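Researcher: I'm preparing a figure for a lab meeting and need a structural model of a single chain. I don't have an experimental structure, so a prediction will have to do for now. The sequence is pasted below. Please return the structure as tokens so I can convert it later.
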Amino acid sequence: MEAPVRHLRACLGAAAAVTLTAAGTTALVAGAASGATTALSNRWYAAAPYLMPLDNNPPDAAAIMDASGLKAFQLAFVLAPDGGGCSPTWGGTAAVSSDTAVQSVINTIRAKGGDVSVSIGGYGGTKLGQTCADAAATAAAYQQVITKYGLHAIDFDLEEPEYENTAAIKNEIGAAKILQQNNPGLYVSVTTPGTADGTGWFGKQMLLEAKSEGFTPDNFSIMPFDGGFSGAASQTNALTNFNAILQSTFGWDQATAYAHEGFSGMNGRSDTGEYFTQADFQTVLDYATSHHMDRFTFWSLNRDRQCSPVDNNGTTSGTCSSVAQSAWDFAKYSVKFAGVTPPTTTPTPTPTPTPTSCKTAWSATAVYTAGNEVSYNSHNWLAKWWTQNEVPGASQWGPWQDEGAC
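Model: Understood. Here is the structure written out token by token.
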């Protein structure tokens, strides 16, 4: 994800990095890798919103699933160690090899029938493509992540400053191709900044690198925000322009280009002060589905809740959206893209009390003693002491105690 307030997406509070033992690239066999689970349909991985599991006040994934119907999450971000090296970490500090915290989140999601993709890169930090010697070494580092978590999907988020580095992008695209070949069925997305023209010069160079290597992922997604965008119309225009770039780069017709195109938005207030509301998301969703696009996602679930105050004092937050919303409103658009109807929130009905039967009707001539019960005026009454010809409820201090309607 790209933006001025990019530390919201780049920084992860976590334990110190631990040096990993280099691992060779091995094919993923579902069920054999640690934590592997049955794969979801590609449509779910294409709809997975980003979630930072270790920072930005991580929300409860299980609660999101229950409230929105979401099944897939895009966990972010895997980077090179802050001190350098070619081994995968969460946010540059928490070694994947010794991780238990993210694994616990994944286990929770899978126990409820969901699954995850892992995103590598993002804005900020040092990327493995920048530190590993070549594409094979970069792929070997990412393979450790795939094997550790039994992944069926992976996202290459290629942004500044990495995507301005020709050698780094060559390593990343080359690694993506190796992983795709060595892990049959692996869903691979490539995410890059968007502009009004579709994507900028560095994004186009990345596409040309993919073409030269003969690499075709499931989709190339652009992020049409933080670039002078204003609402959904500007985003759909950028998607149309990006489609033309895909056609000219790869020689695809329009339909094939859309089938390999994705959208990655930012819910609520962007880093540069743009606002994208639920209505904007619906408009882009309609565009994506009507053009048979391959991916619809957003940054981020950590932000998919209302700020207090709503506008968050005119700043962009990593933990709320800065627009009026109910929790997980934006996640429901991902659910719709996956082809599922999100659950509706209905209030729990107040149980209708079982009617109490009425006691024998009060009589003006009868004598009552403490503990006797009668009914009068559709209420039951309890005698507090000896009484005769005193109407129940006639006096606050009288002999009758009201036991409620009957």
